[in-house]
Design goal:
Elements (H helix, E strand, L loop, with lengths): L1 H10 L4 H14 L6 H12 L6 H10 L5 H16 L4 H6 L1 H13 L5 H13 L6 H12 L11 H17 L2 H13 L5
Helix pairs in contact: 1-3, 2-3, 3-5, 4-5, 4-7, 5-7, 5-8, 7-8, 8-9, 8-10, 9-10, 9-11
């Protein structure tokens, strides 16, 4: 749609920081039922600039409760990305923002949509939160079976999810996940 295209253009402009106020205003003025694609594109655009501030952070926390799973998925991704850009992830998780993010991400671990749960688990584990270990274990179990069916190929988006799961699993410090990552890495060296 035209609105999605405008949101994408703002985010992909050379001046992402300059586009942030327009994207923020755009998102604040949308009703939950308004143009899901445009909301997703605007949130994706906000992630392009890396770490973001409080107004944008609030938009990602709010998006975690959206009825559409594509919005919840980008919410988890954005919250995780922002934590990953911080010098000390545990400091972020202790702040008010971090507390709200942890609450939002924890609720997304129970989401009915697998991709949403995976993104939330990766985001939480990226900050060393052990709450995500069960979902990461399931995700790594799936990664270990990639290519088991003849002709099965790994899509680029699924490859990225598996690769991020490996990185996140290492940050949890969980010994069982570390062994699983090591075994899968030997079987699928491209997932390291």
């Amino acid at each position: 749609s035209l609105v999605s295209s405008i949101a994408a253009l703002l985010g992909y402009s050379q001046d992402v920081a300059g586009a942030r106020p327009a994207l923020e205003a755009f998102l604040k003025n949308l009703k939950p039922e308004d143009c899901v694609d445009a909301r997703v594109m605007a949130l994706v655009s906000l992630t392009r600039g890396g770490e973001f501030g409080s107004p944008e952070y609030d938009l990602f926390v709010e998006a975690a409760g959206h009825p559409d799973p594509s919005v919840r998925k980008i919410s988890a991704f954005g919250l995780g990305l922002n934590q990953g850009k911080t010098a000390a992830p545990s400091d972020v998780m202790m702040s008010d923002q971090g507390s709200r993010a942890r609450t939002a991400l924890s609720s997304l671990l129970k989401d009915p949509v697998e991709d949403v749960r995976w993104n939330a688990a990766i985001a939480l584990a990226g900050s060393g939160n052990a709450e995500a270990i069960g979902i990461l274990k399931d995700l790594l179990d799936q990664a270990s079976h990639v290519g088991a069916k003849e002709g099965e190929e790994l899509t680029s988006s699924r490859f990225e999810v598996f690769r991020e799961a490996f990185r996140a699993a290492r940050k949890t410090g969980d010994a069982n996940l570390a062994v699983k990552v090591k075994v899968i890495s030997q079987e699928h060296p491209n997932l390291k």
